[in-house]
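#structure-requests
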Amino acid sequence: MSQEPADPYEGREAPPFCLPDSEGKETCLLDFRGKWVVLYFYPKDNTPGCTLEAMQFSQAMEEFSHLGAQVIGISQDSPESHLKFIDRHDLTVLLLSDLNHEVLKLYDAWRPKTIFGKEFLGTVRTTFLINPDGIIAEVWRNVSVKGHAEAVRLALLANQERKVPV
């Protein structure tokens, strides 16, 4: 009996994309083939939850790098906004700009949200762990920020242990 994945994206190839980074340089997911990728989507630069999430991932970057992983954050903010966000908080994560919500939609992170009874489309905090072959290993949706970077790091370790070379 096979176990169903926790998310329909698990086990599928990560949708390819190219987006500008904080300096306007185009960065593509394929650039990281052969490495683990932590791909996280967040609503907005310089807001409390998004700042905490980016800082936690940045504080753990040395560990992620040691494990052969690149951490990438994506929001609808502009490259200029990302640059200010990085400078203001000494962030070390790679931030990409998805002004047209194309990649957010590809990863099902652009969804209806409700605040104070008003419905609108927005970014749902979501994280994907992508293996070196470009396959989505794990997905976290509606992420609670506190402790999330550590949970992702532990999942990365567990996934690496499962894929022991023969």
